[in-house]
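Hi R.,

Here are the chain sequences for the assembly we discussed:
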Amino acid sequence: MARRNTTSLSADARAAPAAAEESVAAWILKTEPAECSLDDIRQAPGGVLRWDGIRNFQARNHLCRMREGDRCFIYHSGVREPAIVGQAAVVTESYPDPAQFDPVSPWHDARATPSKPRWFAVDLRYLRHFPEPLPLAAMRAEALLADLPLLRQGRLSVSPVSPAQLRVLEAMLGRERP
DNA sequence: GCCAACGTTGGC
DNA sequence: GCCAACGTTGGC
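And here is the predicted structure of the full complex:
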């Protein structure tokens, strides 16, 4: 079913992200390590930590599509050398983020109610630190990652990785091993 | 600490 | 519902 030179460009533009969403091979979770780091996940009781405080609609929509067992690359931002430092796995799919209902929480949202939550969290289990982090600069230098949402879109704290992009990331990570 | 990019808010 | 102003993120 060829769809080319259609005049309905805007409809195609809207359809494109939906098609991309169907092929998510992994996720990238961005965090400032001073706030929450991969080490914090590792050191959490049982190695399981709630990933909460997401207050961006697009990130939330991605978060809600995460499924038990999904792989997550943990990316540390706001440091001298921003990089993917390791992996975690989803152990509990999205549920309402309790912080939104807590008036003293920095993540409180007065517009949220338990019957109409606005924000969600997942639980992550620590998997591993990579022997060497994969720096942002290395990813930017890799043409095959040009479309990686992490690189294309600032401020997106939860973003998908396509199967092809996952293969590239794994190759780059494997290449680093001694 | 600066600044560009981008999401959110709020006036109209 | 548009769009300017504002706030925040995050790389450098």
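Residues 30, 32, 77-78, 82, 136, 154-155, 157 of chain A lie near DNA strand C (CB under 10 Å from a C1'). The two ends of chain A are 47 Å apart (CA to CA).

Let me know if anything looks off.

Best,
T.
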